[in-house]
Structures are given as structure tokens and as C-alpha cells.
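Z., the sequence and structure:
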Amino acid sequence: MMDFLARFTFTGPSNWIIQRITAIVMAAYLFFIVGYLITNPALTYDQWSELNNLLLMRVFTLVTVAAVAFHAWIGMRCVLTDYITVRLIGPKANGLRNTLQLGLALIILFYLVWTIKILWGL
């Protein structure tokens, strides 16, 4: 199973680039939502529902959630590999780290599937 997770592990410059790109996507989504709320101070449920029913908004939301997932995976993986080590914890560190990474991967996958279900009602 860990070989499977290793395929989704980027190193060095790739991590840095992906973290920056995902941060830009998340910031763009935040600025859009805040801007929309500021320009529509008397926002109604119907307006909010209409915005979120637009295909472009659904895609933007899905891309943003995927960006959060990648950002979280890379960030947490870096934290786990930096702090859950044999030197700091002992011989059981590798098993603990792999278990935590698997749990994190499952949680991220769950949230991605849940987002798709919410956005497209699948």
C-alpha cells in the first residue's frame, strides 16, 4: 500500500511549485467569494444558489477543493516525514508514519468524493 502512496509523493522543487500553485488557486477562490459577498450585501438564498448552480462555479469549487487536497497532502507528508522519524520516536516511527499517511490519504479521498457528490449530486 505504501508503494501506491509513494506514487503520489513529489520531491523538492515539485513540492514547492505545487504548493505555490495550489495556494494561488485557493487565494483566487477566497478573493472571488469575498468580492461576491461585498458586492452583494443583501445576498439572498436564491442568488447564492444561482451562483453555485453555475457550471463554472462548480468547476472552480472542485478545482479549489482539489488544490486544498494537494496542498494538505504535501504539507502533512512533509510534517510527518520531518517529525515522525526513527531518531525522534524510535523503531516504530516508520510504521506509525505510514499509518498516519494512509489515514490522511483516505480522509483526503473521502473529502474529494464528498465534494463531487455535493456539487453534482452523484
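The chain has a mean pLDDT of 90. The CA atoms of residues 26 and 71 lie 10 Å apart.

Let me know what you think.
H.
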